[in-house]
Design a protein that fits this description.
The chain has eleven helices and no strands. The protein is mostly helical.
Length: 238
C-alpha cells in the first residue's frame, strides 16, 4: 500500500518545482565554497597543507544543518501543498489505501529527496576539489559521503515535525515560519547544549561519537512521525 502511495506521490511532484529545490541547495553550497576557495586558494593551500580535502569538507558542513532544516521545511510544505492546492485530500483518502500508508509515503518521499540532495552535495564538493587541483588519490570518500547524510539524520526530527504540521494545516504560514525559526535557532544550538535537539545535526558530524546523535535524531524522528501519523489518521482533513 505504501509503495503504491509513494509511486503516486513521485508522479505528483513533477512540475511542482520540488526538484529545483533538491538541486538548489547543493549547487548553492558548492558555489559558495568555489568562491571561498577560488579567491583564497594559495592562502588556504599554505594554511591547510596536506589536509585540503578535510578543510573543504569542514568549510561546507558549517552550513549543512541550516540548509537541511530549511530544505525539510520547504519540501514538507510543497509535498503537502500538492494535495492542499488541488483540494484532493478527500479523493485521496477515499481510495483503498490506509491513511497511515498515505502519511508514511509522504514522509519517505521527503526523506528520499533530502538524501538525493545530500548525495548531490557530495558529488559537487568532490568535483569542486578536483577542479581546484586537489589530489584525486586523497579523496576522503567516507567522510564525503557522510557530509550530508550524518547531519540529515540529526535533522530528521525537524522534518517529521514539519511534515506533521504541513499535512494537517491547509494554511502553511505557521509551519513554514516555525521551520525557519528552528533552522536559525539550530545555528546557535550548540551554545545551549550538544544534546539540545537542534544541535544534533551539527553533533552528528562534529562529535567524537557521531552515531549517538544519529541515533537520537532517527529515534526522535520516528516517534514524531508516528504521533503525526496517528493524528493525521484521526483528523478530518479537508
Amino acid at each position: 500500500m505504501t509503495g503504491r502511495a509513494l509511486s503516486s506521490d513521485w508522479l505528483k511532484i513533477r512540475g511542482k518545482g520540488i526538484w529545483f529545490l533538491v538541486f538548489l541547495a547543493p549547487i548553492g553550497l558548492t558555489a559558495m565554497q568555489a568562491l571561498n576557495f577560488g579567491l583564497r586558494l594559495d592562502y588556504l593551500k599554505e594554511q591547510y597543507g596536506g589536509h585540503l580535502w578535510e578543510s573543504l569538507l569542514d568549510n561546507v558542513v558549517v552550513f549543512v544543518p541550516l540548509a537541511l532544516m530549511l530544505g525539510a521545511t520547504i519540501l514538507s510544505s510543497m509535498i503537502a501543498n500538492v494535495e492542499h492546492e488541488q483540494g484532493s485530500w478527500k479523493q485521496l483518502l477515499a481510495m483503498p489505501i490506509p491513511r497511515p500508508a498515505v502519511y508514511l509515503a509522504k514522509f519517505l518521499l521527503a526523506c528520499m529527496l533530502l538524501i538525493i540532495s545530500c548525495l548531490l552535495l557530495t558529488a559537487g564538493i568532490i568535483g569542486l576539489g578536483l577542479v581546484l587541483g586537489f589530489n584525486a588519490g586523497e579523496i576522503p570518500w567516507i567522510h564525503a559521503i557522510k557530509l550530508g547524510l550524518l547531519p540529515l539524520a540529526g535533522a530528521l526530527p525537524v522534518l517529521s515535525l514539519e511534515l506533521w504540521l504541513t499535512m494537517v494545516n491547509k494554511n502553511q504560514a505557521l509551519p513554514v515560519t516555525l521551520g525557519i525559526v528552528l533552522a536559525v535557532m539550530g545555528m546557535f544550538a550548540l551554545s545551549i547544549s550538544p544534546y539540545f535537539p537542534l544541535a544534533w545535526a551539527q553533533m552528528a558530524w562534529a562529535s567524537p561519537t557521531p552515531f549517538v546523535f544519529v541515533g537520537l535524531g532517527v529515534g526522535s524522528a520516528l516517534l514524531i512521525m508516528l504521533l503525526g501519523m496517528v493524528h493525521f489518521s484521526r483528523k478530518d482533513v479537508a
